[in-house]
Amino acid sequence: MEEFIQYLISILNLGSIYALLALGLVVVFGQLGFLNFAHGDLMTLFGYALLFQIGWGLPFWIAVVIAIMFAGGCAVMMERVAFRPLRGRSPMTLLITSFAISGALHVVFQVAISPRSKPIPIPEFLSGYITMGDLFISRAQIFTIIVAFTSLILLRIFLARSRLGICLRASASDFDVARTMGIQANRVIAMAFFLSGVLAGMAALLWISQRGAVHPALGLTPMIKALIAAIIGGLSNPKGALYGGFLLGGLEATLLQILPDNLVVFRDAIVLLLLIVFLVYRPNGIISSNPEPMR
Amino acid sequence: MNVQSKTLPNDSAPDMTARGLAWDHRTKDSLISFAILFPVIIAIVGIALFFGLASKTLLMLGCVNVIAAVGLGLFSGTSGILSLGHVAFFGIGAYVTTWFTLSPDLKSFLLADMPEFIKNVEWPLPLALVVGVLACALVGAVFGIVMMRLRDTAAVIASFGLVIIAYLIFIGAKTLTNGKQSLYALPTDQANWWVILGSVGVALGAAFYLKATKYSRHLEAVRDEEQAARSVGIEPQINIFIFWVASAAIVGLAGGLYAHVVGVISPNGFYLEKTFALVVMIILGGYRAISGCVVGAVVITIAEEIFRKTEEHLSTFAGTELIWGIEFPMVFGLTAISFSILILIVLYLRPEGVLGYRELATMLFAPQADADPQDGTAPGAAFKVQGDNKLATEGLSKSYGGLQALSDVTLHVDAGEIVGLIGPNGAGKTTFINVLTGILFATSGKISINHSDATLWSAHRLARAGLGRTYQNIRLFSSLTALENVICAVTVKTPGIGRRQAQVRARSWLVLLNLQDKGDTLSCNLAYGDQRRLEIARALALEPNFLLLDEPAAGMNAQETQDLKILLQKIVDDFGVGVLLVEHDLKMVMELCHRIYVLNKGELIANGTPKEVSANAHVIEAYVGEDEEDT
Question: In this predicted complex, what is the ipTM?
Answer without folding.
Answer: 0.89
